[in-house]
Design the sequence.
């Protein structure tokens, strides 16, 4: 039987392995950490389940690939999805705005706030839909569609070289409106000046259309469930198995101080191309820019925040010191303590992250880089993290009076922490930087350097839960259904 070895148990690796195991392949997944999931994990502290890499997942019930995967693997029955009450709430120098989900609802709320921009707002949502529909169509092309392919992709061709800033300059006058529409830009890139407008369309429209979801009990529940599908179908999932070398037909890993080599007819890598080719000892110079990393401050509250402050928003972007979209550029240059962040208040959705229902968990997250922490001694690193936590708490206090008094546990994971756990270049969780030039070069599922090597995860389509999971399906299709993969890495 064909043996398939998967290097790395992030969402991409787990999805591909589960689908292939279900179809009867002999699958072995090797994960260097002691749990599977990569970013899609949780850890426990003082009675709190701390979520590592999920605030809101898009496309849970609307993305055709995600629906196909979740139905096939029975995910909807085994993993409880909780809908966020709105897309986000953003606070700027000019005040707060709640962005509902639902395309019509969001459009209406924006027109109410910015009546002079009505024409641009309607056009904006029209373009989001047009571009997203085109990408969806490309994902399910029939042979006869290739005859009219150039017509199908006109909207992609039109915007392929444009950044969000380029397109917004022609759509809107109001700088606050532009800021609001980019509130969540820090996940993908630092500023709208470099972000591909096409990526913006696909990602934002998916959240507007289908809403954002959290996984009850934490994202580790999904990862653990996928691992169960693999083992129940006869596959193996080996944790604490650090892959150290590969050849075209074998994978070597370190397990409990032992070096073990196993046969592999096919290898699927959940790692970046550069890290993967290093395992094969193949010279490879990455030419693409890598996306930024993220910093998270995990906070356990002695009370349920929703009970104390009343119903609020789930994803709260605080950009207190900026008032226009230009502010993202100045924020990038600010001291990390001054930058804006998102506060995810998990108490708003009964997230199942605390043992005691009268307590709650929250996470503050912002863009980060390894450079930010470079050259610091252990003591300096700790002191810088503590100073950052103090400034975060002070800002939270200004929005939730005396919330500092409710903090029972606080801890910060920086870009360095992300790197130590998932080992990605630049400590990124979002693969390649989605600039106009780079975004269209994805997905890249099949290696052109090693015949039986495939890629999954944040490096294939884009970073994020749904693209990483979808990459597992692209790989599965390429391997199992022998579907021609047009894209190479
Ligand atoms: C703070 C934070 C917040 C986020 N919020 C969201 C969100 O709200 N919505 C959203 O959609 N996405 C979010 N993301 C992004 C999302 O979590 C990631 O894009 C996604 O989980 C990446 O999946 P992946 O398949 O690329 O695997 P990865 O998570 O990159 O995992 C790769 C795996 O490979 C393993 N590995 C590495 N080297 C080896 C080796 N040599 N041998 C064996 N195993 C190895 C690692 O240990 C890891 O488990 C967030 C990420 C972070 C960090």
Sequence:
């Amino acid at each position: 039987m064909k043996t398939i070895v998967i290097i790395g148990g992030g969402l991409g690796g787990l999805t591909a392995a589960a689908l292939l195991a279900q179809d009867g392949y002999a699958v072995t997944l090797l994960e260097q950490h002691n749990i599977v999931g990569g970013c899609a994990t949780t850890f426990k502290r003082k009675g709190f389940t701390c979520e590592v890499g999920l605030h809101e997942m898009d496309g849970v019930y609307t993305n055709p690939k995600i629906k196909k995967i979740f139905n096939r693997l029975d995910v909807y029955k085994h993993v409880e999805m909780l809908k966020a009450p709105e897309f986000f709430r953003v606070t700027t120098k000019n005040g707060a705005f709640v962005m509902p989900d639902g395309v019509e609802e969001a459009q209406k709320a924006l027109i109410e706030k910015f009546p002079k921009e009505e024409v641009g707002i309607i056009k904006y949502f029209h373009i989001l839909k047009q571009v997203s529909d085109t990408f969806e169509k490309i994902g399910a092309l029939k042979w006869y569609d290739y005859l009219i392919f150039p017509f199908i992709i006109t909207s992609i061709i039109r915007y392929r070289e444009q950044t969000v800033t380029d397109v917004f300059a022609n759509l809107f006058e109001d700088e606050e409106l532009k800021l609001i529409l980019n509130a969540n830009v820090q996940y993908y890139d630092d500023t709208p000046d470099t972000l591909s407008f096409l990526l913006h369309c696909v990602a934002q429209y998916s959240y507007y259309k289908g809403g954002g979801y959290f996984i009850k009990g934490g994202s580790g529940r999904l990862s653990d469930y996928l691992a169960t599908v693999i083992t129940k179908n006869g596959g193996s999932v080996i944790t604490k198995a650090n892959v150290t070398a590969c050849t075209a037909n074998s994978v070597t890993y370190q397990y409990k101080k032992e070096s073990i080599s196993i046969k592999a007819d096919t290898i699927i890598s959940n790692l970046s191309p550069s890290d993967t080719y290093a395992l094969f000892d193949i010279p490879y110079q990455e030419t693409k820019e890598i996306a930024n990393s993220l910093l998270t401050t995990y906070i356990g509250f002695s009370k349920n925040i929703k009970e104390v402050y009343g119903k609020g928003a789930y994803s709260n972007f605080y950009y207190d010191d900026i008032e226009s979209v230009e502010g993202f550029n100045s924020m990038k240059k600010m001291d990390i303590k001054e930058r804006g962040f998102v506060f995810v208040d998990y108490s708003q959705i009964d997230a199942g992250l605390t043992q005691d229902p009268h307590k709650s968990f929250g996470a503050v997250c912002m863009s980060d880089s390894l450079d930010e922490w470079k050259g610091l001694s252990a003591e300096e690193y700790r002191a810088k993290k503590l100073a950052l936590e103090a400034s975060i708490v002070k800002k939270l206090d200004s929005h939730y009076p005396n919330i500092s008094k409710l903090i029972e546990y606080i801890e910060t994971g920086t870009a360095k922490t992300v790197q130590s756990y998932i080992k990605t270049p630049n400590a990124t969780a979002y693969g390649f930087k989605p600039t106009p030039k780079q975004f269209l070069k994805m997905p890249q599922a099949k290696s052109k350097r090693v015949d039986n090597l495939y890629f999954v995860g944040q490096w294939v389509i884009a970073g994020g839960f749904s693209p990483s999971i979808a990459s597992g399906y692209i790989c599965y299709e390429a391997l199992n259904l022998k579907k021609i993969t047009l894209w190479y890495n």
